[in-house]
Amino acid sequence: MSAVGVAAPARRRRMLLGPETYELVFGTVYTGLMTNLLLALACLPLAVLVAATDLASTWPLAALTAPLLGPALVAAFTVFARFSADGSTAVVRTFAGAWWRHLRRGLAIGALGTGAVVVAVVDVAFFWGRTAGAAAIPVLVTLAAGAVATAVLALAAVPEMPDARLRDMLLAALVLGARRWYVSVGVLVVLGLLTSVVATRPAVGLGFAAAPLLFAAWGACRFALRPPPPK
């Protein structure tokens, strides 16, 4: 009786740590680390500026290279979608294919988002310390946040709607992001956390934190982009 009682839990433990579990764990870790590496390579000029320079003085160069984030995020979101759908760990092939296929749209969305943020930041600097700043600065910050949220939602929609026009995609991202504003706020919080980690510890942010935080942002974006239920 005692031998049977001891053997049964042992068999259960072995079943809980079967080959499928190890495959899932290692596949998840590999997908995350490889996605981090490919993101860093796809945004290498921006990554170098963030890691090796003072952005207070090199921000114009950072603004010029920031649109590279567009196709890189589209490619990363495509990797996440493939991994979530069928557990695919063909990260390099998926990332490279999506990056090349959606390069123009990714750069366009990245440039539009970057331009909106730069204009807002310059205007905030202009109004800072002025009487009109009390009214203008909150509006400008809100517009910049909305531009970032819309851009990220549009980038998440690019692989889902490859045949849609860019204007329609941006409009859908703007409307659905505003309708589900609480999700957009969550996406901004996640992106803000990632930005702060990358700015303070680039190796940790780009090497470990980027993929899990972007996966959370991608999941929120997919929820926000769902069509509203019929009335």
Automatic annotation (TrEMBL):
Transmembrane regions listed in the UniProt entry: 21-49, 61-85, 106-129, 135-158, 170-194, 206-225
Keywords attached to this entry: Membrane, Transmembrane, Transmembrane helix
The organism's place on the tree of life at top rank: Bacteria
Statement: the UniProt record of this protein carries the keyword Transmembrane helix: yes
Protein name: Ferredoxin-NADPH reductase
